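Hey,

The postdoc asked me to send both predictions to you directly instead of through the lab channel. I've kept everything plain text so nothing gets mangled by the mail client. Protein one:
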Amino acid sequence: MLKAFAHTGISIIITVPDDQIPHLTKLSFAQQWVKTFVQPYIPATNITRILVGNEVLATANKLLIGNLVLAMETLHEALAGETLDHLIKVSTPHSLGILSTSSPPSTGKFRQGYDTHVLKPMLGFLRSTGSPFMINPYPFFGCSADTLDYALFRPNPGAFDETTRLTYTNMLDGQLDAIYSAMALLGFPDIDIVIAETGWPSNGDANQVGVDAETAAEFNRKLIEHVSSGVGTPLMPNRTFEAYIFALFNENLKPGPTCERNFGLFRPDMTPVYDIGILRPTATASYPSNSGPGPAAAPTASPLPRSRGKQWCVARPGAQQEALQGNIDYVCGLGLDCSSIQEGGPCFEPNTVQAHAAYAMNLYYQAMGRTDFDCDFRQTGSITHVDPSYGSCKY
């Protein structure tokens, strides 16, 4: 799967299985894990985040819970040892079960025992490494026949929070703001919140409401519109939310209630269950943006290499030096050969950030197959048909 996403620019998140968490507290194990599951696939595959376990606090497994933060710290240390920590961030996703109270949202509070012993040091780690807090909010599991419209972003009377005097028009905002309130209570209101997974089933049992393809399509379509609108939530206004839809495929072999097997956008035979406006005859969809300073991961055309003669990638005139320095750090941190722009190298002179960035950016562009988005670098790169080589400095 990691090889299949190579050279697409699509941001990929990988997960350490729960049972490996105790082993990951040992630096030697973490280093070997990075060497086995990360290094062979980068920079071709755009791995941007590693999640340690899945909803670990909900397992009630004291061994896993007690080792979770240390495992995250050790994995980060292993990434830092390979100068990958600025490209790949470490986090872990949680269920809403970590909250003891969530309604109204202003009363959001983490469960006692988890708050100071696990979540507070975890939030400290996330802040220090620039990583997000990841949560799995599911309005489907929190709604009833009476609150179905509230869960589905439909017109409804809303829910009023007496403390903040704010009105909530949908359940997702209430769930996100409850998490925000709990984080603020521990002193961490500044950490980004990412929706690690959410979705709606297209089929379910007779006693469940809204379990059909039309309703599932409605929720996911409105979810995309809402999280990308920039409206934010009542407590977190004017922002967008990185969000992931659960799931790509129906899990026909999964045990449990019928709904658990029917959250997918596609059936196991790869036919679509419904379309929420993302199906395309060619690869024209937008993808999650790159968390690092490297090439933007939002191609608007087919990501296949194009044959248009020899091309080079150079720094765009007027680009900020800080951004260009970030491009140099990004490319050279991936292990590509930047010796030519080091002192004594043929491209060291002129010793300017602009010149060094141009060489590094082109180095990446050529290695990745010369696709347009591999020269974007957050709009600081420009493609040229004029060879920028000079003297003994060869691009």
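Protein two:
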Amino acid sequence: MKDIYVVGAAIIKDNQILCTKRATNRILGDLWEFPGGKIEPDEAPEAALVRELKEEL
């Protein structure tokens, strides 16, 4: 089995938590998740998190 490395963020402000709902037609559709995603080859986890947050937000 292939290893896949990911990053994610729990963003909390004023007692509210930022999360997103997955698209219905995707795997695990309609479930909630924190923003984040896969780390690209030769990418630092911190850089991947910044990139993913910019893409999603």
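Summary for protein two, as requested: DSSP finds one helix and six strands in the chain.

Thanks,
C.
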